[in-house]
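Morning - adenosine-5'-monophosphate-propyl ester inputs below, output right after.
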Amino acid sequence: NYLRHVESMSQLPSGAGKISQLNAVVLGESLASEENDLIFPSKEFSGQALVSSPQQYMEMHKRSVEDPAGFWSDIASEFYWKQKWGDQVFSENLDVRKGPIRIEWFKGGITNICYNCLDKNVEAGLGDKIAMYWEGNEIGVDASLTYSELLQQVCQLANYLKDIGVKKGDAVVIYLPMLMELPIAMLACARIGAVHSVVFAGFSADSLAQRIVDCKPKVILTCNAVKRGPKTINLKAIVDAALDQSSKDGVSVDVCLTYENSSATTRENTKWQNGRNVWWQDVIPKYPTSCEVEWVDAEDPLFLLYTSGSTGKPKGVLHTTGGYMIYTATTFKYAFDYKPTDVYWCTADCGWITGHSYVTYGPMLNGATVVVFEGAPNYPDSGRCWDIVDKYKVSIFYTAPTLVRSLMRDDDKFVTRYSRKSLRVLGSVGEPINPSAWRWFFNVVGDSRCPISDTWWQTETGGFMITPLPGAWPQKPGSATFPFFGVQPVIVDEKGNEIEGECSGYLCVKGSWPGAFRTLFGDHDRYETTYFKPFAGYYFSGDGCSRDKDGYYWLTGRVDDVINVSGHRIGTAEVESALVLHPQCAEAAVVGIDHEVKGQGIYAFVTLLEGVAYSEELRKSLVLMVRNQIGAFAAPDRIHWAPGLPKTRSGKIMRRILRKIASRQLEELGDISTLADPSVVDQLIALADV
Ligand code: PRX
């Protein structure tokens, strides 16, 4: 029915015309009115799009779920395989009641993702095409590499890693900012079959140490320092502290290869320990510029990436090679309607999954030209992004709602003083994009002509799961629209029953897709318990979702104890564990609250030890504790002094009540009679503004 409706609507000469600016508040706006607001791609856009109509999407999606083996093996055949996969394209068990969870794609197929990203493109004649434009923090500091040059640099690093004894299956930790050396390092590991684990360079020494202890790398790759905006951050000092900590915990790392980032600091100003430390520029250029590929099985691990869950310990999400390769390449191509002439810029850091799948692997598998930006998007002013767009003629721009919201607070002239005429497709990721941010992005940044791909996915899913295909469907501001090929989303109720049609509930996925993660490193039990046991038979995403009358999906945020701050996923338990390490903190409970720019902010209730008085200084030192334990991005926005916490008689903290107090919805506290001590609530309310 909806299809017929769309057909009749698309007869209207609306094109991608100006859309209404609702007078909505930035967050918490009602979505009800958005359901009926259809924004059509222009005829010109659809006419050139890879998927140009709802019908074409529906046919392709139908085939992808009815015949996944045929659908995905046709695509996989376009890549290089040293040896083709076995008879079974995929095999899976996603039902804990039937045995251990197992997902395998292209098993027996022998390939290498670095080869497919680089050598294959060079052999196809793209050697002189720019693979990466690098834009430094400061205006005027830039560089670039062609596909041939990138291949040579990757080979030099790969040869070095082999030389110091890194072998197939060994872990390598990468703690680098957005220098070209970061994707180079990832590709070099992949080339020799080593398993990279990139740690976002905003994580503290303690967090880095925790990850090192878990995956036990032979080597860590870093740089001496980085400038982000006006600030210089001495990464090498953080690595040194992390390595000291990890060796106390029994894991020592032999080599710390350090890139000299001379725009941030000098060698002389870098603390150095001979023996372990090696300057990148002193050794890597001496190595040969070609390096044999280590051919690996499609199911051999490619990388580990730690992410937050609902307990304090981060989870090592493990992705394997073949399925991830096919999935990231295909999602990139279709969700951004990629064409070989595009210049693509994703503002994400390679320390997160977005930088893995959509800075490095997805684009390079397509032979794309990628912009890598070292700096802060509002430095030296709010026009920096559009300056970069014009400078490199960026045609696909992919970013996070938090950046859109922070830029839309400034005058539109920071946008409109740049031409932006190269832009063709916009993208959003990391959290639900609220309709007013969507409209500003669409109308102001994209001049009402660029479709927005609001891509819903997760570290665990490897690639896009629910996303518009620009040119196919009309969009609704704030909806991630429809599932990608091969993806079967289902919405279930608390009992795990699938709900059909228009509904709200928990978002799960039926069946596997090639990019799915295969396990949590060293903890398959936790993998099954977290993702496959809550609703037997399905993968549970941890997100809430509704589906409207037209079948569009609307993500509504996490339903577990995970909060999403500026698109960064943070477990409330991680922040609580950091707070209770403070010598004067007896107990802590953390909840998320709406935040105008960050999406969610961190709100911490803290109970102090008996006899300790509240003070501003103490508040600061509690925040510092979290910065040191996790990283600056996890610093609480509010500390709320709590003489006690609302607990049930069995001692369970009632977070529902804390969330209401944090958001000052005091009239909606609900039933508090089951609390062991209901007077705690009044005490908390009394301290709300202290
Ligand atoms: O809550 C969803 C939100 O981000 C979570 C995944 O976080 P992470 O693994 O760090 O990956 C972020 C980049 C893929 C999801 O569970 N999320 C991500 N993208 C969207 C989103 N929520 C709504 N809309 C999105 N487009």
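Note: The longest strand covers residues 585-595.

O.
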